[in-house]
Amino acid sequence: MGDAASSKPLRYVDIGINLSDPVFRGEYHGKQVHDDDMDDIIERARNMGCLKFMVTGSDLEESHRAVQIASKYPGFCYGTVGVHPCQAKLFDSHPGGPSKLLDEIKTLALESKKAGHAVAFGEIGLDYDRLFLSPKDQQLKYFEAQLDVAVEIQLPLFLHSRAASEDFERLLAPRLEKLPRGGLVHSFTGTMEEMNRLVALGVDIGVNGCSLKTEENLEVVKAMPLDRIQIETDGPWCEIRPSHASSKYLEGAPALPKSVKKEKWQKGCMVKGRNEPAAIAHVAHVIAKVKGISVEEVCEA
Questions:
Q1: Per the structure, how many domains does the chain have?
Q2: In a 3-state reduction of DSSP, which class is residue 244?
Q3: What distance in Å separates the CA atoms of residue 214 and residue 103, rounded to the nearest whole number?
Q4: How big is the chain by its Cα radius of gyration, in Å?
Q5: In this structure, is residue 234 part of a structural domain?
Q6: How far apart are CA 233 and CA 231, in angstroms?
Q7: Strand 183-185 to strand 204-207: parallel, antiparallel, or no bridges (unpaired)?
Q8: CB-based contact 206:184 (threshold 8 Å)
Q9: What residue numbers does the annotated binding site cover?
Q10: Half-sphere exposure (CA, 13 Å, Cβ side) for 90?
Q11: Contact (CB, 8 A) for 137 and 166
């Protein structure tokens, strides 16, 4: 360890964690497989030095849950409020119509912002890879509508962009100047050109295990300005796997708790295939190695 052990402990912030997913309460595909271990998950992350989490809202119900989690763990968890592009179809199917859902989202965002529980508006954006979930016209219409709500209530943006960079940037750019705190595109897996355009727009970029999968991904991360990177796990997904290009950079990274199959769960263990915020240390470690800098520098930034 050398000098790292004697310096101050590393501190991380996980800017994208789906803690409202039932798997974090031991429920998989509607079946309770093991005890609810949410408190342990938070505890493990804190032991690893992860001091703040941003819990992602992806529709009205999930946003309510994110805010509930934020109020249960105040000072550690903060929520986002918004409707994910893959859920854009919910606007047209809402019992009171699209404007009613938009109003409900806005009210929740305003109240939670005031209470200090919601710190960003999202997850909103465009996803043209999964148009079977919500068609393009609905995605465009309700991304634009939600951007306007975010500007109105002055919350920074938590953004999703997949295979839609042109439309995404076209709708986003004119509104960014009205949002002094900007926003970030989370779970970035795009090209060098897309990364450079986002940096030029002035948004931050969220990097997780999915952003570090291939050699090309690693080149893009290497080129990202350090002060524009935010780190995330996006758990329960996006873990760093042995098959990923990033895994060769894990030598010397802090050890994670033992992981077991969900059926063999025991208290204190991670679950195989369920990514959790303690793994943020590995994301930071890989970014540092790829950029040839210390993990301290990554954490500071």
A1: 1
A2: coil
A3: 41
A4: 19
A5: yes
A6: 7
A7: parallel
A8: yes
A9: 123, 160, 186, 234
A10: 18
A11: no
Q: Scanning the structure block, which residue is given the tokens 């271990």? A: 37
- Three-state secondary-structure class, residue 184: strand
How far the first Cα of the chain sits from its last, in Å, is: 22
Contact 33, 71 (CB under 8 A): no
Question: Per-residue pLDDT for 175 more than 60?
Answer: yes
Inter-residue contact 153 to 110 (CB < 8 Å):
yes
Is residue 4 in some structural domain? no
Q: Binding-site residues for a divalent metal cation, please?
A: 123, 160, 186, 234
Distance CA 194, CA 197 (A): 5
Amino acid at residue number 78: Y
Q: Is 224 left (phi over 0), alpha (psi -120 to 50) or beta?
A: beta
| Pairing outcome for strands 27-28 and 31-32 | antiparallel
Residue 64 structural domain: 12-300
Which of 121, 198, 118 lies closest to 152, judged by CA? 121
What CATH number does the domain containing 225 carry? 3.20.20.140
* Residues ≥6 apart with Cβ < 8 Å to 4: 294, 295, 296
* Statement: residue 6 has pLDDT above 80: no
Given pLDDT bands bounded at 50, 70 and 90, which one contains residue 5? very low
Is 1 a domain residue? no
What is the percentage of the chain residues whose pLDDT exceeds 90?
97
Is residue 2 a part of any domain in this protein?
no
Q: What is the largest CA-CA distance in the chain?
A: 61
Q: What's the CA gap between 43 and 258, in Å, rounded?
A: 15
pTM of the predicted model, to two decimals?
0.96
pLDDT digits (tens, 9 = 90+) for 120-158: 999 999 999 999 999 999 999 999 999 999 999 999 999
